[in-house]
Each structure stands twice: as C-alpha cells, then as structure tokens.
Specification:
- The chain has three domains: 225 residues, Growth Hormone, Chain: A; 68 residues, no CATH class; 196 residues, Growth Hormone, Chain: A (Up-down Bundle).
- 64% of the residues lie in helices and 2% in strands.
- The protein is built from 22 helices and four strands.
- It is elongated, with a radius of gyration of 26 Å.
- The two termini are 20 Å apart.
Length: 519
C-alpha cells in the first residue's frame, strides 16, 4: 500500500488539510518580512559631507554653504562623498565654473549629513555605512543570507532526522530571540552576528513549511498547496511595505517584523507532524494517531487501518535507514537531479534578490516599488497554477527563468529617462522571477523521495541562499561598469533556465517514497 492510497481513504484534501494549510500560510508571511528587510533596514538616504561652521557662513543660505564646500557632479547634484579642502567663495559668483584642480578635493573629514525626510534612521545613518564603507552596508544582506545558507544544511538534515514540526518550532523560537537581539544591537558587529543567526533560524521556516503541507495532501491538490503557500509570501511582501512605511526607525522596524513569529509559535500547536515522515521512521503509533484524527475531521469515520499495516509499509520501503546529503549523489538519476536542481535554485534566487533589492532603479518610490513588486507576484502565481498543470513543471520552470533574464537584460539597454517603460519591464521581470521561485519550490518537493525530501530541500536551499548571498554584492560591480550587475543577473537567469530542461517532469506523478522509486 502506498501513502497516497491511505490519503484517499482518510480524505486527501478535507477540513484537516485546510486547517494545516491555513496555519502554515500564516507562518510563511514571516519570511519576506526578514528576507527583503534589507531594502529598508539598510536604505541609504541622500547625504553629503558635514561642513564645520565658520563665521564667514553666517549670512549665507544652506544652498550657498553647500555650493562653496561641496563639489558638483556633471548633472548638477552635490557629491555625496567629497568636499573642498577650503571654501570656494568664487563659486557664489559663477557656480558653473567648478575648480579643475583636483588636489583641493578630499574625502569627507567630519562625517555626513543625511536627509531624514524618508527615514528617521537606518543602519547606514547610524554607523555611516556610506562612501568607503558602502560595502559593509551591502554585506549586511550577505551576512543574513550566509546564515540562511548554513541553516538550510542544518535544518534540512535535522528535519529528516528529528521531524518537521520539532524543527519548525525550534526555527520560530530562535527567530524571535535573534530578531529581538538584532533590534537591540549597539554596534555594527553585533548587528552582523545577530542578523546572520536570524538567517540560520529563519531557514528552518523557509525549508519546512511547504514540504510539511504537501506531505499531507493528495496528488491532485499538490499544485494548489504549493501556489497557495507561495501567495502568502507575496502577502508578506506587501505587508513589509506597509510596516516599513509606518515604522521609519530601524530598531523598531526589526521589532515590528519579528513580533509575528510569536503568534506563529502559538498557531503551530495545531499542526501535526508529517505522517509520511513518521511512517518512514517507523514511528507507526504516532502516525496512526494523526491519521485517525485526519479521518475524523474529514468525516471518514469508516476509516480503519492497523498500526501493523503501517509497519509493513515502512518495512517494504526500508525507509528507516540512515541517509545524509551524500545520498543525494550516490545513484545516477538522483545525482543528475541534484546537480541540475542546485543550479536552477541558484539562478532563481540570484535573479530574484537581484531585482528585489534594487527598488530605487525603476522610477518609483521605495515603498511603492516594494508594494507593486509584491502585488504583481499574486497574478503571476495564479497563472502558474494553470501553467504547471497544463504545460508541466519543467517547461514552466525553464521559461519563467529565461524570461526573467530577458527582462533584466532589456532594462540595461532602455535609457534611464524612459522611467515608465523601465518600470513596466521591471514589474514584468519581477512577475516572471516570482513565478520561477513559486515553481521551483513545488517542483523540488516532487523530485525527491520522502526519505530524502528535506535533505534535498536543504541542499537546494543552500544553493539558493548562496545565490541570495552573492546577489547584493553584485551592486558593487557598478564601479567597474554601470550595467555589469544587471548583465550578470541576466546571464545567470538565462543559463539556469536552460539547465531546467534537463530535469524530469513530475506532473501527475506520485510522490516518490524511496530511492528505488526515483531510479
């Protein structure tokens, strides 16, 4: 007997599954609140060098003080990182005659003055992470995703070893602790460490929610489950824009986005452990109890299966053995799946976070961009519900990635003054990018067998977070060539989309239980 046969008897998508999915969807809202928080936490407002007060400035306006102390760029704006060594009073007579002697221009000597009209404070203004320190500002996101990368490997292994629900509880508790410690940070070093640990903790939530939901539903509702949980990522995306708009001080912003994890811990009480996992590990009494509860809630009172039957199911597949990440590469078909899916996940995350962390490059306000990027994901995901069932997982995965890359590439050649066109292309690209992310979660959950599913998700999530870690650092390449970051995102997305064609199709195929089902 297969587990899908059991699901048909107890109800593969009834009140029991609806309750589980409702709670898991609420849990998923927490993720984008932290994963995309860098856009607001580390936002850099307009700034210029601080100018020491002098008696000669008493009768000058603020604009005139800036004019004689701060060099102007070719477009007429004041430099953010340079100042004159001595005031250039002659510029009051003719501001267009900028000094040609570069020796009188120096880096900021007395700190910076920031525009606080949009943000009360960010980590950039708190610790002057601008100009020469700009790399540390971008590194904050990288530290977080390094934590998520490490957490993916840890929680992927532990959730296959000790259970989905136990690790989900641990993930949420640690997220609250490290999130609050981040909000209390008194130095950049403390923030970098606590944000890294927050990334480790949240990785468990990112990794476990979808597989736990999918392991309780039948084949016909797997796609719906994957799309539904993914839509709540977009809801969190839009909520982040609202919360960031209302909370402009970075300490309290961290508190505001961490608080919902406390509610999630309470809600998780009603979510059962995966019966698939319990059977795979030979814990048939617990699995039997959850299956009976499921049958009662779904109105299947005539359901009757003995623990002995479940014991035979586990023995038939020999699923109680010990498996690790090495098992993903031991057999030829599984090895090919692991290598290709790893490259696809890297490309999906690299291009997604490359677009999501460039909110100021498309002519909209940062809050509106965040909200629009979130809301465009919902119709994209609804379209995925049709496409993955009609076209299939493989074709959808490949083409959404390729189209994401083409949209990013198109914006490198569209002139900056065409802000409306650039915004439309960016929103389209964001829609394709989110569609690719939605598909890859669903697709990967179906590629790996139950005994290795969390190991497989852990490995692919590791590859994704590696891409997410590198994505914000690519913005520093604009010093080499202004369009180099976008060209890099474009190339990686197109190449990883091509790799997706090498994966097997899983449309309407039963979830594999053991390695022999894959081979």
């Amino acid at each position: 007997m297969k587990f899908e046969d059991l699901l048909l008897e107890i109800g593969g998508f009834g009140r029991f599954q609806v309750l589980i999915l409702a709670i898991l969807c609420l849990l998923r809202i927490n993720l984008p609140m932290h994963f995309l928080l860098h856009n607001f936490l580390a936002a850099t407002p307009s700034h210029h060098c601080a100018i020491p007060h002098q008696e000669a400035f008493v009768n000058l306006t603020t604009e005139e003080v800036l004019l004689i102390n701060i060099p102007q760029k070719p477009d007429g704006t004041f430099s953010s990182c340079e100042m004159f060594s001595q005031p250039q009073f002659h510029l009051l007579l003719n501001s267009s005659r900028q000094p040609e002697n570069k020796s009188i221009i120096q880096h900021c000597q007395h700190g910076w003055v920031y525009d606080h009209s949009q943000f009360t404070s960010t980590i950039s203004t708190q610790w002057d992470l601008v100009c020469e320190q700009r790399g540390l500002n971008q590194a904050t996101a990288t530290f977080f995703f390094i934590g998520v990368t490490m957490g993916a490997m840890v929680f992927g292994y532990l959730s296959d070893r000790f259970g989905r629900k136990t690790m989900l509880q641990l993930s949420l508790v640690c997220s609250v602790v490290f999130g609050m410690l981040s909000a209390a940070s008194v130095s950049y070093t403390m923030l970098a460490i606590t944000r890294t640990l927050t990334g480790v903790a949240l990785s468990g939530l990112s990794l476990i929610v979808l597989p736990l939901g999918m392991e309780w539903v039948d084949v016909q509702h797997r796609t719906f489950t994957g799309i539904l949980t993914s839509i709540f990522w977009s809801v969190g995306n839009m909520l982040l824009a609202l919360v960031a708009y209302l909370v402009r001080e970075w300490h309290w912003l961290l508190v505001a986005v961490t608080g919902p994890c406390l509610l999630s811990i309470v809600c998780l009480w009603w979510v059962p452990e995966s019966a698939r996992w319990l059977i795979a590990k030979g814990k048939v009494k617990q699995a039997h109890r959850h299956l009976l509860r499921c049958a009662r809630m779904n109105g299947r009172k005539d359901f009757a299966v003995s623990p002995e039957t479940l014991t035979r199911m586990a023995a038939d597949k020999n699923m109680g053995g010990s498996y690790s990440y090495i098992s993903l590469f031991r057999t030829p078909v599984l090895r090919k799946i692991s290598l290709c899916s790893g490259m696809v996940w890297f490309g999906v995350a690299f291009s997604y976070y490359g677009m999501s962390m460039n909110l100021t490059g498309f002519g909209l306000s940062i809050y509106l961009s965040q909200f629009v990027f979130g809301i465009i994901e919902i119709p994209a995901k609804m379209a995925m519900y049709v496409l993955v069932n009609r076209v299939g997982r493989r074709q959808t995965q490949a083409w959404t990635l390729i189209l994401t890359g083409l949209c990013i590439g198109a914006n490198t050649v569209i002139p900056k003054p065409f802000t409306s066109l650039r915004s439309v292309v960016a929103v389209m690209g964001k829609g394709f990018s989110e569609a690719a992310f939605t598909t890859v979660y669903l697709y990967t959950s179906e590629l790996y067998p139950t005994i290795l599913r969390q190991n497989g998700m852990g490995y692919t999530s590791f590859m994704a977070r590696l891409g997410g870690s590198l994505a914000p650092l690519m913005f520093l390449l604009d010093e080499v060539w202004r369009s180099l970051p976008e060209v890099t995102y474009c190339g990686v997305a197109v190449c990883s989309g091509a790799v997706a064609f090498l994966l097997p199709e899983t449309l309407n195929v039963r979830l594999p239980e053991g390695i022999e089902d894959i081979e």
